[in-house]
TrEMBL record:
Positions of the UniProt region annotated as Disordered: 599-653
Family statement drawn from the similarity comment of this UniProt entry: Belongs to the type-B carboxylesterase/lipase family.
Domain of life: Eukaryota
Protein name: Uncharacterized protein
Amino acid sequence: EIQSSDTPSGRHLSNPTTMKQLILFAAALCSVILPIGAVVRETEYGYVEGTNFTLHTGKAVQAFLGIPFAQPPIGALRYMHPLKYAGPQWPMNQPLNATYPRPSCWGVPLQWVSHQDPIYDDFSEDCLFLNIYAPGDAAEGVTSYPVMFWIHGGGYTGSGSVQYPGHFLAAEGVIVIIIQYRLAQLGFLTTEDENAPGNCGAMDQVMSLQFVHDNIAKFGGDPGKVTLFGQSAGGSSSGLMTLSPLTEGLFHQVIAESGTDMAPWAIVDPDEHPRNYAVQLVEALNRELDYECPTDNNTAMVECLRTVEPYEMLIGGILEVEETLGFITHIWGPRVDGKFLLDRPITLREQGKFHKVPVMTGQTTEDGSMFALIGVPATSDGGLNRTLWYEVINKLIKQLSPPGADYEAATRAIDFEYSNWPHIDDELANRDRIVDMFTDCGFAIGNDLFARSHSEYNATYQYLLGYRSANATEEDLPAWMGVPHNGELPYVLGWPYIGINPMVKYHLAGMQQVLDFNEFDNHMTDIIIKMWTNFAKYGNPTPEPVNNFTWPQFDTTDYNYMSIDRMGDFEVKKEYNPHRTAFWTQYAPWILKGLEVPTEAPTSTPSTAPPVSSSAAPASSSSDATTIVSSTVSASTEPSGGSVAPQTSDELTSEGQNYRIATIVLGVTCGVLLLGLLAALWKRTKVDSELKEQNGNYELNPVKVDP
């Protein structure tokens, strides 16, 4: 007789028979009659029991939820890199019960607001689990399906596996892995020594990838054909995996959505001395919550931090640290540590020290709109007048520019490039340009540099997704936000089908989507899933036309990319926004190297490209870098509040060199600026949010934020 085990070797896993889970499961069974059967597979840690059931399409899938890939990072293992189990944990006659969702890692709770209804409330430090979704016939020795390994986003501070269904991708003939990793302070706090080495969240990702490599054949998967894919911080994490010496041979392709290692926010700046953040956190906890943790001895400080409750650290602490720093930069995230990451991504790519695998990368058309909404509250009420436009730019630049920077020149450079010339008083257009700025510096340039880097060595595909559901109302998603950050996730992961598949909904802890999807959304989902799984199978999203469309490769001759417009039409285009690429990339390499700033645009792509970096790229053959200095702009009156006033045409012409120099400041700080806006969300919702511990559960009652 086989008996499922929830407590292998004394390990406590959340009880699957809670009232909430029983209700969800009963609802699933009562809503529709589906064939459901147990399926048992072997891992290096023992046997696991999952379920095999049928989706609405009639296709069967297997689901294994909550498989531990490392020891619980609790007690003395908090702030330490993950450890494997010493040996098997679950005997064949008592397999691990892998039929219900496990808790998510502690992280910033507001990451969940726009994704879950009702608010998700199941968090734990014991969270190093992964889910496996496989086709119904997958079995060792019978099948060898390609593997898609999902790393979730959330700014390295939030989210979890229950937000991401792998069922619908698996139904197309791949095995999907959804992992969890430690987040925020618990995942990335460091003392820069052995007491708290940092990068725990990144090392969790590596260990889970190793676990998949070692065990996926038992589930009918091919360990020699693994595609990493992720969005936002999951995209940047996937990119960082291409740079890490620890991942050699563990994956073979990458899909990076709205984030790569070349994004300016992908890592913590090595010059920021991240130990200081740990000290500031401790000081805040001592001051606000009456802890008495020392800060002059790393060993004692970390030992004391291990006694702090996770919710106190993640909520009470981060807010105080944020207030100490002004705008939060990039406190909790991957860092150069000499182990996971040997140097800055810029440097490693310049030296060719990365895994030169096939890649897909892209973004949504308005990836920056969510950050505009968060950081500039006036955007939710209307546009930005000229005074507010300047106040916003001045405030951000003053707070975020590095020491010694000419913030006035930086402000004027941003204004010059992004103002709606000649109608600079158009308030709605000003809002749109703020969105453009955050989209460009936060996502587009990094994606483009990532694509250029890999295209020199292997197949590369780039996309721009602008499709917006006709069912997206002003209340759900204001029109000015377009297709915001996360806008591709419904179609990549099959969200429109969750509601008609009760078992899927149960696996996602009862997740309810705010948006009601329509039939054309279903059609778009089928297309995107087909392309993504094709890439995992063949290294080509359209080995045969999909929806009568063939997606050509990106290279540094044609710069092809797939464009999907608002109506869902597919088109091949060339060179996404070459002018903005020139603005952010043509001058920075020379400034950073202390060379003379060029005064003419290059006439062709250089045979020897500048170093690949978040501020340097091979020149675009059609870019006209001189257009960042113009003599046809309009003058404007000086705004109130001490902001920098717009210049006249003559002033702009005579000070053109200052604009070019200022772009370096922007290249260095645009990622900091973007991340600073995340802190504004905390400030806007701090009064409206309530955190309390009751009966061991995490409860949150925040203000609703539009996705």
